[in-house]
Amino acid sequence: MTETTPFDELLPATRRALLHRLAVGQAEGRTPSLVGAVVRDGQLVWSGARSALADQVPDADTQYRIGSITKSLVAVLVMRLRDEGLLDLADPIRAHLADRLAAEGADPSVGDATIAQLLAHRSGLAAEAPGPWWERTPGELRPELGDVFGERPHRHPAGHTFHYSNPGYALLGALVEQLRGAPWDEVLRREVLVPLGMTRTSATPEAPHANGWAVHPWADVMQREAVEDMGVMGPAGQLWSTAADLARYVAFLARGDDRVLSAATLAEMRRPANAPEGAAWDDSYGLGLQVIRRDGRLLFGHTGSMPGFLSTVWVSPDENLAGVALANATSGPSIATLVADLIGIVAQHEPPIPEPWRPLPDVDSELLALTGAWYWGTTPFLLRLRAERWLELAPLRGGGRGSRFRPEPDGTWIGLDGYYAGETLRVVRTEQPTHTGATDPETHLDLGTFVFSRKPYEPAESVPGTLDPEGWRGF
User: Fold this and answer.
1) Same domain (yes/no): 340, 395
2) Which domain holds residue 452?
3) Are 368 and 383 in contact (CB under 8 A)?
4) 341-355: pLDDT as tens digits
5) Domain assignment present for 174
C-alpha cells in the first residue's frame, strides 16, 4: 500500500477517506492493482494505490492502458483543426477523406457523416468493427478503413440518434493524419502531450507499466490478457498513460491552455450534443467528452476499457475538482463510480472556499447606468455588471431565460450560455420628446430582436407590433 501527496494540501482525514475508498474499490472489485488521483485547482493534491502484491505496488508514474479516454484526446486534435480554420464541424468527412475512403474500399455512405456527428457518436455508424473482436486481435487483420466498416457500415440514419461508434473515431484519426500529414499519435505527442507535460503517455507501453489481467468471475484466479496494436483502430483506444499524466490532462480539460485549446472550445466540447432519453438524463455525450450527473454534481470526462484495463477521468468544473482512476482488470471495479466518489469525498470534507468579494477596479458610468431592472414585455429581468465589462441577465422571479454576455470590440455583447448563447445584445438609444419640447435619450436593449425596456411595454416606439392605445387599465 502506498499513498503519495506531491502537493500536500489535503487534510489527513480527507486523505484517509480517499485511501479507504480506493481500498474498498480494489478489494470489492477484485482487481490486481488500482491507482487513483485527485486534482484540485489544477494541481495534483493526492494519489494512492492498492495492489494484490505487497512488493508490486504501482504509483502515479505507472502506465496503464486508458482505452477510450484516447477518443477525447483525438477530439482535442480535431477541435484544434477546427479552431485553425482547416475544417468545419458541419463538413461531411468525405470532404477531407474522399480519396482515402475510395482507395481503401470503404462504403461511400461512410463519408456522409459530418465531423460533429462523428465526434458526438451521432453518425449512425456501427458500434464495432466487423470480424473477430477487434480489441483482442492484431490491427493487421483490419489494415485499411474499408476493413473497419464492412458491407453494412450504418446501423441508424446519420444524425438520428446517439450510437457509440468505435470505427467512427478511426475516421477522425484518419482526418487528423490527412490534414497534418503525419500519424495521429505523432501529431498528438507534438501538439498536446508535450505542451501539457504528459511525457508518460504513449501509443505503446513504456516501463514501468502494469500488465493486463482477466480475473475469473467466480474464483480468485487470473490470466494474462494479450496486448495488441490496434492499427487503424488506434484512435478508438490505443493509448497508455499514468495517473500523474492524466492529472495534467484533467487540469487542462478544466481550465484550457491556449497552447492547445482555449477554455471556450473545451466548454463547447462538453456541452451535451444528444437529446435525453426519458424525462431526465444522467448520461450524455458532447464533442468527444462524456457528460454525467452524479449525486447532484455535473461531471465531464471519459471512461475507458480494454482487455486487462479500466480507466476513468472526471472533472467537476463547479468545484475545481477532478479525479483519475486506473485498474489492470478486464472487469470488476466500477471505475467511473469510484472517480465520482473521490471527487465527492474532497468536496464534502473540504468544500471550496469562495474568493473574497472585491469591487470592480474602475467604473464605467454608461455601463453602470444600464444595470438594474429591465422588462421583456411584462417579464422583469435584472442586468448586472461584472468584471471586464461582462454582463449578466437573469429573470427576477420564477424561471426564465438568462445568460452571461461577453463584450465585443464593436460595443455589443455575445451570449455565452442558455437560450441566448451566440446571440447579440445591443444597447439602442433613441431621442424621445419631453413635455418641454426638448429630447431625452431613451434606451432599450435588443437581444436577438427581443426588446427589453425600462418599463413594461414602454416606450411604445421601441416595442415591435402595436400596443393598445388605451394603455394600462383596470378590468
Assistant:
1) no
2) 365-462
3) no
4) 999 999 999 998 888
5) yes
